[in-house]
Each structure stands twice: as C-alpha cells, then as structure tokens.
Design brief:
alpha+beta; about 40% helix; 7 strands; about 200 residues
Length: about 200
C-alpha cells in the first residue's frame, strides 16, 4: 500500500490575517504546493489554481467566526470541495469525529493513516474513518488515480530528458532513451486528455 501523498501540508500562518478568500488563497496555493488537501490532485491537471477552491474545514455556515481563520482554510479541488460542502458531524468546531464518522484535518499526519493508494493509484480507505471520508468526499472517482499517475509519468519524463541531454553533451548514444521518452510523452498526453474529461 502506498501513501495517499508525499507530504503533509502545513499552514504558514495562524489566525485571521486576511479578510478575503482571494488574499488567503494566494498563500494557500504555496502552502499546499498546488495540491488538493483531501485527494492530493495537482491543480495543473485540472485547470490550474483559478479552477481550485478554498474549503472551510469546519464549515463557515456553522462556524461563521472561522470564515477567515487561516488554519481552517484548505486548498481544494472542486470535486472534493463540492462533495464535502457543509458536512460536519458535531456542533463544535473542535470535535471532528464522532463514532468513526467525520473528517480528519488533512494538515495532520493522522489523515495519512486513514487513506492510502493501491498500485494503480486509486485512493483506498484504511480505517472506518477513512471509509467515511472516502465515501463523503467521493475519493473513489477515477480522476484521482489518473492525476496521480500523470504526476508519476511527468516526473519520469523529466528524469529521462535530463539523461538524454547529458548523453548528448557527452557525445553518447541516446536513441533508445529518446524512443522511451517519446512513448512516455504519448502516454502522458493521453492521460492528460482523459483527466480533463473524467469525473
């Protein structure tokens, strides 16, 4: 079983500092490294940061005083944000779980204990709480595996391109690597097209 993500996002600021979502979003994009807090989808494969949302972890409809509290704001893909909506298990913003139902804050390592990835990149629940989040956030959507694999292929492409460039500098044979590079490019763009359409 693989981890759902490679790093736990961290908020750089605390409290209520900026009074608009736009101002907060500029900082959240950096803190979350352009990735959704919940599914880890890279915004580049879904229209960029203009297409991403800001989710209120504890919903602002229930906890108005947290509307601009920075550590309550999560950079989120539109799919996770729409799925989560105003769902909250309790009447207190501090109580996030009741009887294996609720949401673990994605800015904690505890989140990673609830969810993982299989060898194909699909998100899978690891616990009862993970099962609840998996269903409520619709983490079963195939787009999450597609985006995960796109990122893996893009990383491989960059590594192969570096090797090709180095071989050319050294005057070495690089035709085989170039063929692999072209094949991976075809796979990458095929996946990229699917990710733009897949729900």
């Amino acid at each position: 079983m693989n981890k759902i993500r490679n790093r736990v996002p961290k908020h750089s600021y605390k409290g209520e500092k900026w009074k608009t979502i736009k101002s907060n979003k500029k900082r959240l994009v950096i803190d979350f490294q352009n990735k959704c807090a919940y599914c880890d989808d890279f915004d580049r494969y879904s229209g960029g940061e203009d297409n991403y949302h800001i989710d209120h972890f504890a919903p602002k409809s229930k906890f108005k005083h947290l509307e601009f509290v920075y550590e309550n704001l999560m950079y989120s893909c539109p799919y996770c944000n729409r799925a989560k909506k105003d769902k909250w298990i309790g009447d207190n913003s501090e109580i996030t779980i009741i009887q294996n139902k609720g949401f673990i804050n994605p800015c904690t390592s505890e989140y990673d204990r609830q969810l993982g990835r299989d060898d194909k990149g699909n998100i899978v629940p690891l616990t009862a709480i993970g099962e609840y989040m998996y269903k409520e956030l619709k983490l079963y959507l195939s787009r999450h595996a597609i985006n995960y694999n796109l990122e893996k292929v893009e990383f491989q492409l960059k590594q192969i391109k570096k090797s090709i460039d180095q071989k050319k500098v050294n005057g070495e044979y690089s035709e085989e690597l170039e063929a692999v590079y072209k094949d991976l490019c075809a796979i990458f763009y095929e996946y990229y097209d699917i990710s733009c359409q897949k729900k």
